[in-house]
Amino acid sequence: MTAELLRVDDVVVEYKVKGARDPFRALRGVSVHIEPGETLGLVGESGSGKTTLGRAILGLAPIGAGTVTLSGRDITRLTTRERRALSSDLQVVFQDPYSSLNPSMTVGDILSEPLRVAGMARRAASDRIRALLDEVKLPVDSVDRFPREFSGGQRQRIAIARALALEPKLIVCDEPVSALDLSTQKRVLDLFIDIQERTGVAYLFITHDLSVVRHVSHRVAVMYRGEIVEQGDAEQLTSHPSHPYTQRLFLAAPVAAPAQQAKRRAERERLLREQAEADVTGAHATLLSKGSR
Amino acid sequence: MSDSALTSNTVPVSSVRSSVWRRLVKNPLAVVALVIIAVVILCAILAPLLTNYDPNRADLSAVFAPPFGEHVLGADSAGRDVWSRLVYGARTSLLGALIALSVAILVGIPSGLIAGYYQGWFDGVASWFANMLMSMPGLIVLLAAIAVLGPQMATVMAIFGILLSPGVFRLTRTTVLTVRKELFVDAARVSGLSDARIISRHILGVVRAPLLIQGAMMAGIAIVLQAGLEFLGVGDPSTPSWGGMLSDAFLNIYIAPWLLVWPGLAIGLTTAAFAILGTALRDAVQGTDLGASKTKSRAVPELGAEHPGIRPAPASDRLLDVRDLKVGYPVEGGGNKIVVDGVSLHVDRGQVLGLVGESGSGKSQTAFAIMGLLPHGGAVLDGSISFRGEDLGNASRREFVVVRGTGIGYVPQEPMTNLDPCFTLGHQLVEPMRFNLGLSRSKAKARALELLDRVGIVDPLRTFDAYPHEVSGGMAQRVLIAGAVSCDPELIIADEPTTALDVTVQAEVLDLLRSLQRERGMGMILVTHNFGVVADICDRVAVMQQGRIVESNSAEALFADPQHVYTRMLLDSMLDDAPARGARVKGGQQ
Description:
The complex is a heterodimer of chains A (293) and B (590). Chain A contains 11 helices and 10 strands.
């Protein structure tokens, strides 16, 4: 096994719920790892905890138990100062390109902020911004414009440029293309892949869209109710899922071809029937899936 | 309109200040208010140049001198020049307002920022203090303060500033509470910015606009209050002030009634100017509403009449026939922005039409126009809509109510926002049936329970009594589907019915829509951006781009052999058929 860039070990995140006695467990002992230059796709439905895992790695969610290690260094609990030093290694691209950019700052200000915080001189920073805009294929004159002058796809490019500014080793991408139109989505995804191939950055790519995860990931992890139910090689996992939930998930996504989709629909109906029958011995099934993990 | 939810949370900030300013000066009332405030400020600054008289010099020979004589505005009971007292009084008033405002802001903003950003114990304590201050009777506190500390107006106004500060505190705190949840604040934290920097760069800018508005209002209040105190005679008699002048005039109201006019005018105009400025600022920040509603009522009834010849005799199974539909929204400076441009489509009974396109293609607008539910300002400018052979172009609001009630059922994109949180799900199902079908309450309830069972809800009775927040998104969408078919419509319009749902729930909802549609032989328009959904349940597809239908065909033919370049581009963007990226070649291309 090569050197791991990120290792998440048995991480638990709990939130206090007002009025309830027991806290809500968003993550119930999650373990994943990412190697340098690799994309780990993280799929799951809303409420499965996939976003929480991303936020826990970024230090935005409280980690109750377990450890997060980046390049061999324990980053589970860091002070603001230590976190700041880490920002050159670990970055983020959020889902919503509208609220993730401060509407009152120009693109130049948004991009220069991380550079200036890292102590870069003004002139060097402005050169770097030029290079960044070029990298994400935006015109250089974007510097003086405000986020509202850009479309969703362009805004997401700005957010990517901001994440790339300090040449991080890992970028947590939280549903970065979900708010985009189909054609824009493809172009932004290709940009992600292109940047990875050129710079060797690693991604934790969180998404609910199975075709997206297949397209960008080397490996895939499937989350369900705060746990990883299955993980493995992208090709293998997306074409031959082994966990019942993953099977349901993949058959539920419609294909854009009527004949194929009719087949998939029939297959899904058959699977649901089978799984319903298997539910009678449900307790055994749960035990088995736990055992195989 | 998939992106409306995303754009709605843009916040008023300084970047838009230039356009705010432009909008402000377009408002004539705001300009008048600005001019008045500027004149008062100039008078206060240039007071010594505007008059030769000392405002406090008593001249017995000039007692109650009439205006427009030696003294421009006359003289008061002690023979002091009224004009001179008025311009020097402006100094007192503005200074007082400035002191009160500065104190309120100096106390309110930092405490509001800290309380909102960090919350915790400070928030509790500060909020408790704010509540306490707000519950105190302001005027009595001030009178007590004067009794103890003497009639120093600066001190009094500073105390008043503290009494005003809870307003600033609360406004700042609530604004910060919403802004700190924004993703750009998270992004800044990941970038390693210190809290102080995040607050000053990212949060303060957003708080600025609402505070400016509140500040203008508070300045007006401070001036009135100060004048009130001086009128009561608790001010410093040696400082000329508008309130003091009013008090003097009031004592001599039978001898020289015109003395009341000048200070009254000054106080009234200045405070009104501040109040109007505050309101105008708010309007300018929020953006002005286009006066669009007027075009709607005018444009709709003319429809159809322009195309008397082209309407074909409806085929027996033709349910909906839309011809050359054109929908526009009036824009600032006249004219219309056309969002649907000459769309023609038709739906037969028992047929599912997919209306596909990217955001802004006009697909939702087309659906809204068919239902007569265009958002504020939108109007059908041209074309005809015929449903069951009746022309909806000529339909009145009342006729549309009938068509929508019993002819067309609607399934929206966001199930949660389309259910009223104040009523139980059962109530929301029963009401339309009672209204449209004239059912009794018990019959309607029986039917609603039957429908809930039909849409796959496990415990219909419990769901019937539940409120929207007590059910999941998928469940809410099932309830809405039950509602859409409750009055036996012949056409269902589903606007991105599964976009907000998880993929497994989406599959279930699509199953449900399809089986209901087949069972009842309904026609259906499915608005979506997802070709997978189209392939799943549509018989025919129309692809929209920039308000036009660029291609329309049977589903099999469209997927097998797309004709238009845009359709091909969209289908190429699908990632379904693309090979998986697969395992990384270690030590390979990187």
